[in-house]
Amino acid sequence: MRLEVDGRPVDVAEGSSLLAAVEAAGVRLPTLCHDDRLTPSGSCRTCLVRADGRVAAACVTPATAGGTVETGGEDIAALRRDAVEIIVSALPPGAVDGTGSELARLCASLDIRPGTAAGTPGRGRDTSHPFVHLDADLCIACGRCVRMCSEVQGTFALTLTGRGADTVVAPGTGGLWAESDCVACGGCVDTCPTGAITEPGPGSGLTSATPRAARPDTVRTRTTCGYCGVGCTLEAVTRDGELTAVLPARDGPVNRGHACVKGRFAHGFLVSPERLTEPLVRRNGRLEPVSWDEALRRVADGVRQAVAEGGPDAVAAISSARATNEENYLVQKFLRVVIGTNNVDNCSRLCHSPSAAGLTAAFGHSGGTDSFDDLERADCLLVVGANPAEAHPVVGARLLQRVLHGGARLVVADPRAVGLAQHADVHLRPRPGTNVALCHGLAHVLLAEGLADEEFLTHRAKGLPELASLLEDYRPDRVFELTGVPAGELVSAARIYGRARRPAIVYGLGVTEHLHGTDGVRALANLAILCGAVGTDHGCGVIPLRGQNNVQGASDMGALPDFLPGYGRVADPGARSRAEEVWGASLPERPGLRIPEMFAGARAGTVRALWIIGEDVCATDPDSNRVAEALDVCPLVVCNELFLSGTARRADVVLPAASWLEKDGSFVNFDRRFQRVRPALSPPGSARSDFDILHAVARALGADLGCPAPADALEECGRTAPVFAGVSHTRLDREGAVPWPCPDPGRPGEAKLYRESFATPDGRAHLAAVPYLPPGEQPDDDYPLVLVTGRRWAHYNSGSMTRRSGNLELASTDWLDLHPDDAARYGVGDGRPVVVESRHGRARLIARIGHEVSPGEVFCAFHFPASGVNRLTSGHADTVTSCPEYKVTAVHVAPALPDSADTAGTHGRRGGR
Ligand SMILES: Nc1nc2c(c(=O)[nH]1)N[C@H]1C(S)=C(S)[C@@H](COP(=O)(O)OP(=O)(O)OC[C@H]3O[C@@H](n4cnc5c(=O)[nH]c(N)nc54)[C@H](O)[C@@H]3O)O[C@H]1N2
Ligand SMILES: Nc1nc2c(c(=O)[nH]1)N[C@H]1C(S)=C(S)[C@@H](COP(=O)(O)OP(=O)(O)OC[C@H]3O[C@@H](n4cnc5c(=O)[nH]c(N)nc54)[C@H](O)[C@@H]3O)O[C@H]1N2
Ligand SMILES: [Mo]
After folding, report:
1. Which of 274, 277, 347, 511 to mutate to test the pocket of ligand 2 (most atoms within 8 A of CB)?
2. Where is the 2Fe-2S ferredoxin-type domain (predicted)?
C-alpha cells in the first residue's frame, strides 16, 4: 500500500507500522523500546510522529493506505526530544556519559547533554552471572530484554518489577541472575539500549546495533559459528589482535540476530594458557616441544615406515567435523592421492551416519530434505529424539516460537521430559531403543485411519504393499508392549501428524545412535512418505538436526571410507575416474576402514599409523578403554589439537591447530547451506590451521596437494563433485549462504529438495519395511538401569572448549539424572557422588534426582572426560553404519565411597613402550 511520509510517496506491505513506513522513506526516528526482532510495545514514546494530523507512536500505529505522516515539524521533533530527555533525567549521573550505548548515541544526536542524567543511583547491580551483568540504575524499563527473552529465546527468564519510575528488569525467579532460568543466549545483552544489561569484560556495551564508526579501534569479522551445526552467522569483534566480543549478525540467514551460550560467549578457550602453541613429539615416553620441521619429519618417517610394513592401508585418518570443508577435502585427498588408501572417516560415524544412509536410501540425497526456513510454515512439528532447546538452542527457540505464536502443533518423542516437551500437545515417551516400533505404530494408525496420501503413494513412492503388510503387526496395543507408549497417545500423535496441512519432522541422535539407527531413520521417513509430506508443498519433509558445525560438510567433502567428495562411491569406476582426472592420480577402489575398524585394526597390528584430526576419541568414542588400548599399540599416532586432550596425551606427535575463529574456509550447516568462515585472529604461538598442516605433512612426504588456498580447494572439490560445482568462496562472499545441490554458479542452490522427483535410481521415495529389533544392551539383575547419554546446554561434546570458558561456572560437573524411585532403591542422595558401572567400565558422577527421566532410566552427558562416561558405553553399533549405540547402556548405580578409590579406569598418560 502507498502512503505519504513528509510529502513523499512510500510503499509498504499490508500490516506494516508507521515506523516501517518512515524508515522506508529513509527517516530515522529514536526508537528506545523498539527492536525489529520483537513485537512493538510503544512504551517509550520516543518515535512520535504526526499521522493524519494526530500525534502517534510510530512503532505501534498501523500504516494506512493513503495516509500522511509528518516526522519533520519542529513541534513533533520537540516532543520526541522531550520524551528522551524525561527518560534520561531519571537516570543517575554518568548514565549516558561515554557508554557508547544506543541511548548515549541518541542523546548525542539530539544534543541532550550527559548532565541531564540527574536521578538517584542505588537500584543495585547483579554481577553473579559470568556472561550477563545488570546495572539496574541504567534500566529504563523499555522491556526489550523481557520481550527478547520471551519472544525470541522463549525462556521467559526476565520480568519488569517495581512501580512507576522504579520499574526495572529482574530475573523472574526473584533472586540472582546466576540462579535464574537464564540460558545466556545473550539476547537481552544485545537488545539493551542503555547498557543496563551488558557482557562483562572488553565487550561490555557492544551490541549488534553498535555502528562500526562508534568503535573505530575495533575490527568486525563476519563468520559462521564453530560449535554446533545450526550455522549461526556471527561477528567477531577484535581489538589489537584480541577478541573483544562475538555478536549475532542481525541478517544471519539461520539465526537472524539470535545466538546461544556457546557461540556468543564460549570463547575463553582461545586464550587459555593450556592452548597448544608448539608441536610435541614423544621421546622416552614423554611429549616434548620440538620445531615444526622435526615434528613433520617424525610424521613423515612414521608414515613411510607404516606403508613399508603394511602397505598404504596401514595408514588411516580420522578427519574433523570441527574443521572446514576445505580442510576435510584435503584430508581425504591426502589419504587417497598421497598414501593410496580410502582409510578416512569423520565423526559423522558417531553421530548422523545413519541419517546419511537412511535418507539416501529413502530419498536419494545424504541430507535433510527441506530447508529450516520451510518450518516457518509448518503447522505440525514432530520432534523425535532431539533436544534442540539444549543442543541447538537457536533452532529450538525458533521451533518453540512456531508453536507458541505460529499455531503449529507439537509432538515430541523422547524418553525424557526435555525442554520442548513441556509445550507439546503430545509427549510420547518410548523406552530407549524402540523408535522403529514407535514409528511403525504411528504409520499403522495413519493407514488404518485413512490419513495416507494415496495419490502420492501411487505416483511418487515405492514399497507400500511390503510396508502395509509389516504394519499389520504394529497395532497400538502391541506397540505399547514394545515401547511403553500408551495406545491413546500414539493414536493422538498420529492424528496430529496425519491431519496437518504442512507437517514437518525434525530429529536427532535419539533416532540414530542405536543398534538399528538407520532403520530408525527409515521408519521415520516412512511417515513423511505415507502422508506425501516430502518433495511436495504439502509438507516440510524430514530434517536431521546435525551435530557439529561441519559434520555435514566433512561427509560432503568425502572424508568417508566409501564415498568421494559429493557422495560418488569409491567402488563406482565412473565416480573414481572423475576424481582421478582432476587429481591426476589413480585411486584405490576398495572402501576403507570406518572409525571403529581403525581401532580394531590398530589393536590387530594392521593399522600402523593413525592421524586423528580434531576429535578426542579417548573421551568421546564408546568403550573408551578399548580405544586407549588401540592408540597405545599403534606405532604412530598423530593428533592435531587445540589442547592436550586425552587423545593427544596418547599420541606420538601432537600438532597445534588453529580454531574456527582463526581460520579461513567454509562450513555446511544442518540444512545443507555452505557458509563462510573467516579468520578474526591469528593462531597462538606457532599453531597452524589444519589446512596448512595438511600441506606441510604432504610436503614432508615429497607430495604436493595442489590448491594452495582454501578457496582453491573448494573450487577443485566442485570439479570432482558436480553437486557443489556452483559453490565458491566468491559466491559465498556475495550471497552469504548457498545450499547444495548447487551444480551451476549462475543458479540458486536447492533449499527444498525433490519437488519433481526423488534422487533415488527410480526417482521415487522408498518406504522401508524393516521390522523392529530390540537394542543391543538389555538391563538385567546386575545392570538393572538403562543409561541414556546426550547433551547439556552449557557444554559442548568433550568440553575441551566450553570447560575452558565462563561456561564452567554455569555447569561445573557432569551429573547423573535419576528418578526419585531409583534414587531410593539404590540409596543415592541428591547432589551426592555416585559410581555408575556397566559391563564395559566405570564412571563417577554427581546424582541429580528429578522427574526428567522415567523410573528404570538414567541420563548423563559426556562433557567432562575425567568422569569416564564413555568407559561405560558399549561396542554395539548400528548394523548398517557402525554408529555407536550411545543411547542404550545397561548400568548399575551405587553411592560412591568417600575417597576416590573407585574412579578406576585408564585415563592419564600412556605408559612407556
Ligand atoms: N550444548 C550442546 N549442544 C550441542 C552439542 C553439545 O555437546 N552440547 N553437540 C552437538 C552435536 S555433535 C550433536 S550430534 C547434536 C545432538 O543433538 P541431539 O540429538 O538433540 O542430542 P542428544 O542430547 O544426544 O539426544 C537427543 C535426545 O534423544 C533422546 N533419546 C535417547 N534415546 C531415544 C530413543 O530411543 N528414542 C527417542 N525418541 N529419543 C531418544 C534423549 O533423551 C535426548 O533428549 O548437538 C550438537 N549441539
Ligand atoms: N556417551 C556419548 N558419547 C558421544 C555422544 C553421545 O551422545 N553420548 N555423541 C557423539 C557425537 S554425536 C559426536 S559428534 C562426538 C564428538 O566428539 P569429538 O569430535 O571428539 O568432540 P569435540 O569436543 O567436538 O571435539 C574434538 C576435539 O577437537 C578439537 N578441535 C576443535 N576445533 C578444532 C579444529 O579446528 N582443529 C583441530 N585439529 N581440532 C579442533 C577440540 O579441542 C576437541 O578436543 O561425540 C560422540 N560421543
Ligand atoms: Mo555429533
Report:
1. 347
2. 1-75
Q: In CATH, what number is assigned to the domain containing residue 391?
A: 3.40.228.10
What one-character DSSP code corresponds to residue 334?
I
320, 347 Cβ separation under 8 angstroms? yes
Can you tell me the distance from the alpha carbon of 872 to that of 836, in angstroms, rounded to the nearest whole number?
A: 8
- Position 376 scores a pLDDT of 87
548 forms bridges with which residues in the sheet?
228
Instruction: Indicate whether 511 and 554 sit together in one domain.
Output: no
Evaluate if residue 551 carries a pLDDT over 90.
Answer: yes
In this structure, what CATH number is given to the domain that contains residue 841?
A: 2.40.40.20
Nearest CA to ligand 1 atom 8: 796
Residue 908 has pLDDT above 60, yes or no: no
In tens, the pLDDT along 672-707 reads 999 999 999 999 999 999 999 999 999 999 999 999
Strand partners, 674: 668, 738
pLDDT value at residue 900: 52
Q: Which of 709, 739, 769 is the last residue of a domain?
A: 739
pLDDT at 184: 97
Within a domain: residue 857?
Answer: yes
> Do 594 and 707 sit in the same domain of this protein?
yes
Q: Pick from 173, 142, 141: which is nearest to 156 by CA? A: 173
* 419 and 525 together in one domain: yes
Q: Is the pLDDT of residue 909 over 50?
A: no
Cis preceding linkage at 741, omega within 30: yes
Cα angle 482-485-486, degrees, rounded to a multiple of 5: 115
173 and 32 inside one domain: no
The Å distance, Cα 598 to ligand 3 centre, comes to 19
Q: Is 846 part of any domain?
A: yes
Largest CA distance in the chain: 90
Which residues, by Cβ under 5 Å, contact ligand 3, an ion? 351, 547
For residues 189 and 305, state if they share a domain: no
Question: What is the average per-residue pLDDT within 767-789?
Answer: 97
SS3 225: coil
User: Do 462 and 509 belong to one domain?
Assistant: yes
Q: At 279, list the grid cell.
A: 608441536
CATH code: domain of residue 676? 3.40.50.740
Give the torsion through C-alpha atoms of 850, 420, 133, 198, to 10 deg.
170
For 842-888, give the DSSP string: EEEEEEEE-SSS-TTEEEEE---GGG-HHHHS-S-B-TTT--B-TT-
398 and 521 belong to one structural domain? yes
CA distance 912 to 650: 10
As a whole number, the mean pLDDT across the chain is: 95
DSSP 552-599: HHHHHTT-SSSB-GGG-BTT-HHHHHHHHHHHTS----S----HHHHH
Lining ligand 2 with CB less than 6 A are 320, 322-323, 347, 350-351, 509, 513, 547-548, 613-616, 620, 640-643, 645, 657, 659-660, 690, 789-790, 796-798, 800-801, 862, 869-870, 873, 886
Ligand 2, atom nearest to 797 Cα: 23
pLDDT of residue 906: 34
The answer on 578 and 484 residing in a single domain is no
DSSP 111: T
pLDDT of residue 910: 29
Looking at 714, 739, 764, which one is the last position of a domain? 739
Whether 230 maps to a domain, the answer reads yes
Domain that holds residue 592: 294-351+550-739
Nearest-5° angle of CA 307, CA 308, CA 309?
90
The ligand 1 atom at the shortest distance from the C-alpha of residue 508 is: 19
pTM of the full structure = 0.95
What is the four-CA torsion angle of 343, 346, 352, 355, rounded to 10 degrees?
-40
Classify residue 167: in a domain, yes or no.
Answer: yes
Q: What is the mean pLDDT of residues 894-910?
A: 54
Domain count for the chain, please give it. 5
